[in-house]
Amino acid sequence: MARPVTDHDAMRRRLVDHGRELVASGGPAQLVLAEVARRAGLSTPSLYHYVDNRRGLVLAVLAAEVEDVLGVWDSVPGAEAPTGERVAAFLDAQARYLEATPAPTVAFILDAVLNRAGDPEVDRIVGPVLGRAEALFRAHAEAQAGDLREPPDVLADLLRASVAGLFLLRALGTGGDATAVARALLARLGSARASLSK
Prior knowledge:
The chain is mainly alpha-helical. It has a domain at 62-196. It contains nine helices and no strands. α4 (54-73) packs parallel to α7.
């Protein structure tokens, strides 16, 4: 049974929201506890009633950002949809998310994914995103295996690299129109599939 929402929970959410704003404005270095407390109308010592330390707040901000990513992916059709449609919807949803998300936030998430090894707390937070993406890549690759001369692992690697590339371009602030990039990628995948199946 879910815990009832308390004033403590509401304040913690406010602190996380303020932390997200600061990360969006310039990355995790901007997440200064005194500034988060000021924005929430608290003294810095009072902030520690809601979070243990800066790392705790950084992890809470990361968890909130990952929830947003998973929420976007929840809009992707399920197993009942044709695999190609699922991949197209996945890339389109990913592109829309990246266009709406500030580059410093994307860089923050990407940094957590790339540097999660050896940090069980970060891995627990980003693991579900990676698992869901990997399942989609695998399903698409296996569904296309009969149509392509390439092994399924090659297509899964291509999709994985494509999504990582979209994240990296956005994190660097050079991604331009992520939806256009994703659609161009889909067109390339379609033409590559046609040429490989001949």
